[in-house]
Amino acid sequence: MPEVVLDLPHVADLSDMIVPERTALVVVDIQVDFASSEGLIGRYGTDMSPAEAAVDRIEDLIAAARKAGATVAFMRVMTRPETDSNAMKTWMTRRGRPGGQGICRVGSGGEDYYRVAPQPGDIEIEKLAYSSFHGTDFEEQLRARGIDTLVVAGISTDCCVDSTTRDAFHRDFHTFVVSDACATFDPALHFGALYALSEHTSLLTTTQAVVAAWSA
Questions:
Q1: What total number of domains does the chain contain?
Q2: 63 part of a folded domain
Q3: Is 56 annotated in the active site?
């Protein structure tokens, strides 16, 4: 996590804000292509240490959520050539990256979970785009469980974490972003996304604070 993130406002005492019965831990896109050195991003020589550090903390969050009885929800990008949107394909081509949308292809292994895995009773969402709410029944599943609060962590801070969190806020969920359990591969984007979310939609917190609240 970039040191500059420490300058952002964080909530250390979550007290009654993330009551397990009404809260879901949302684990965003912890998949081979996004988090592993053997995945698509890693094979380009990207330093994957920010992702690995985030997954370390996500493992702690998942364990704490399960122990406390909070819902754990796993988001996963699952793409196929026939489901690539025209907007995405055109955007990639115009950026000089034709075919760049081919990440987390079903059957490639890149779509697999990395170091984490759902258990019976967890929520699993397959998505095509950045937001976990777009074209899915995520909201309906949350409402059916009486959940009104989301604790969000995952990859990448500036893309799918950001989009999911903003959409959750627009749907009247209380949103918390665990800053040290999120990652991207550009410190400026990581900081900028957290700063924007803290200004407009969410409270920022840390793994330690969430675990402490769920251990009380």
A1: 1
A2: yes
A3: no
